[in-house]
Design a protein that fits this description.
The chain has twelve helices and twelve strands. It is an alpha/beta fold. Helix 6 links the parallel strand 5 and strand 6. The structure holds pyridoxal-5'-phosphate (PLP).
Length: about 375
């Protein structure tokens, strides 16, 4: 199988798998226990947490290890002061949308300018009211790869003393990360960066008034109860450490090569957000000859995995909310597929997938 659906999930990195499996093989204690196995587990946990925090340049007391980005985003968003105002966008993932709707706040849903893939700082500034308490924004879009100008939005949030929640899922592991200043909470999922599914994190700055979703036994500074998974936390730390070796430009060169090959071999391809700043690994492409769902099935039979919309929605017949809210026509949205590469994708796989795409489309 040629796997071009890395924005849905990624293959576990061999080194991450090695440390994870070796910890599963050892009899580990509960990091909350006083005996030696417990204290050993605690030391491993402390070390792993430190290492994750180095990636984000925050103190370990500002890290909450979660089950994934959905939990992290929900926790950060539900920390918004009640009955205030939240500014977010219609391009956000369902994890954000559902959490924002659970608050008692008034919500402004911004949409980008027609055809564009990201919300601007200017749009956010115009939406600020005296009641605004929080901005929730994705650093990069998971479907198109379009980059948000995070530094500009963070500066704006800082100037207006707003809480800023950043969905960093589609950015981390695709571009170099820099944690913005201000009252920020950053959310991500491990399985998007070659760690196992079931672990993610939220890092936050000292001014962010984080509230627990559940307190349980008071673990993680009383903000996220429940016995910590040492093996998963160590695996996540290892996945972050592996990112230091990643050459994002090499992924970008391969993605650009893929797009060039598509243009050279297939008539009328339209690449969404092609001329905007994008993360290194995504191509979202409309093919005039065939509807996305049909093409996706043909590709699957020919051993190429791609995606039509985001993974959580695949299977649903609804068109992508991201492309729709970018103002693209239903006709184009229905003909669009997402291809997402990883550092494990090879040029040989790209050449084969273009040849397969071409033959699938010739049959139409
Ligand atoms: N945010 C974005 C941009 C995503 O792409 C996803 C998952 O696809 C999530 C949040 C939710 O992540 P998870 O399902 O790992 O909790």
């Amino acid at each position: 199988m040629i796997y071009l659906d890395n924005n849905a999930t990624t293959k576990i990195d061999p080194k991450v798998k090695q440390v994870y499996c070796s910890l599963l093989d050892q009899l580990l204690g509960n990091p909350g226990s006083m005996h030696r196995p417990g204290q050993h587990a605690k030391q491993l946990l402390i070390q792993a947490r430190r290492s994750i925090c180095e990636f984000f340049s925050v103190s370990p007391k500002h890290l909450i290890v979660t089950s994934g980005a959905t939990e992290a985003l929900t926790m950060a968003i539900l920390s918004c002061p009640p009955s205030s105002h939240i500014i977010t966008s219609s391009l956000e993932h369902a994890a954000v949308r559902e959490a924002v709707l659970q608050t008692s706040c008034k919500v402004t849903w911004l949409s980008p300018e027609s055809g564009k893939g990201a919300i601007t700082a200017d749009q956010i500034e115009k939406a600020i009211t005296p009641q605004t308490a929080m901005v929730v924004i994705m650093a990069a879009n998971n479907e198109t790869g379009a980059l948000t100008d995070l530094q500009a939005i963070a500066e704006l949030a800082y100037q207006h003393n707003l809480l800023l929640v950043v969905d960093a899922v589609a950015w981390i592991g695709k571009e170099t990360w820099k944690t913005p200043a201000g009252k920020v909470a950053i959310c991500m999922s491990g399985h998007k960066i070659h760690a196992p599914v079931g672990i993610g994190c939220l890092v936050y700055s000292s001014g962010f008034p984080l509230k627990p979703l559940f307190s349980g036994g008071g673990q993680q500074q009383g903000l996220r109860g429940g016995t910590e998974s040492v093996a998963l936390t160590v695996a996540l730390a290892q996945a972050f450490a592996q990112l230091e070796m990643v050459r994002y430009d090499e992924i970008r060169v391969l993605r650009n090569y893929f797009e060039q090959q598509l243009k050279n071999n297939i008539p009328d391809v339209l690449i969404h957000c092609e001329h905007e700043p994008r993360v290194s690994n995504v191509s979202n492409v409309a093919f005039s000859q065939c509807e996305g769902e049909t093409l996706l099935m043909k590709l699957d039979l020919a051993s190429v995995a791609a995606s039509h919309g985001s993974a959580c929605q695949s299977g649903a017949l609804e068109p992508s909310h991201v492309l729709t809210n970018m103002g693209l026509s239903k006709h184009i949205v229905k003909r669009s597929l997402r291809f997402s590469l990883s550092r494990m994708t090879t040029k040989e796989e790209i050449n084969r997938s273009v040849a397969i795409l071409r033959s699938c489309l010739v049959e139409e």
